[in-house]
TrEMBL record:
Keywords: Membrane, Transmembrane, Transmembrane helix. The keyword Transmembrane applies. The chain crosses the membrane at residues 40-59. InterPro entries: DUF2065. Pfam families: DUF2065. This is DUF2065 domain-containing protein.
Amino acid sequence: MDDLLAALGLVLVLEGAFYALFPQGMINMMRRIPDIPPASLRLMGIVAVAIGWVIVKVVRN
């Protein structure tokens, strides 16, 4: 459970850093999201999950 909370904290730190450092860039990115086809968003999500899973496996072994 400690690892899950640490991972969640790290996600929040990284996401918060993007908003703090590049607020206008984040706004522009969010405006473009509705123009991206759902299939592309789904693929990007699956790829992100796969990369995250590999990183966790590499770090944990």
